[in-house]
């Protein structure tokens, strides 16, 4: 994957969204941030993205529902889900819905980098 891969980030917390955008840019990626799943889905070309990182717990369309929508709209676009709520089966549910990665907030540089490396978005 190109070091200028475009990553879509979805989170309804504006401060966290800005911080995560900066972190992902530090990996050498381009970033587009969205404060709702609906805004991401309504973007003109979802196939521009190398990956989407989305919060699970959001109003209207949550991260698990977003996976289903993106499967229909963008095929096998890799999705990393994140959550600040530690439900015991949430990680299993996320992977069962098709997530390619899962991180629990707060997470560090290395944890997110590892998830992005696993799906080939950034180099080892």
TrEMBL record:
Keywords: Phosphoprotein. PROSITE patterns: RESPONSE_REGULATORY. Residues 6-120 form the Response regulatory domain. The modification 4-aspartylphosphate is found at residue 55. This is FixJ family two-component response regulator. It comes from Rhizobium miluonense.
């Amino acid at each position: 994957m190109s070091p200028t891969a475009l990553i879509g980030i979805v989170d309804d917390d504006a401060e966290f969204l800005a911080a995560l955008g900066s972190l992902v840019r530090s990996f050498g990626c381009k970033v587009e941030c969205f404060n709702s799943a609906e805004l991401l889905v309504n973007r003109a070309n979802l196939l521009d993205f190398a990956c989407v990182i989305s919060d699970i717990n959001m109003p209207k369309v949550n991260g698990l529902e977003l996976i289903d929508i993106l499967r229909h709209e963008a095929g096998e676009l890799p999705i990393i889900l994140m959550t600040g709520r530690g439900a015991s089966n949430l990680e299993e549910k996320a992977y069962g819905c098709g997530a390619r990665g899962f991180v629990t907030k707060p997470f560090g540089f290395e944890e997110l980098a590892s998830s992005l490396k696993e799906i080939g978005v950034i180099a080892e």
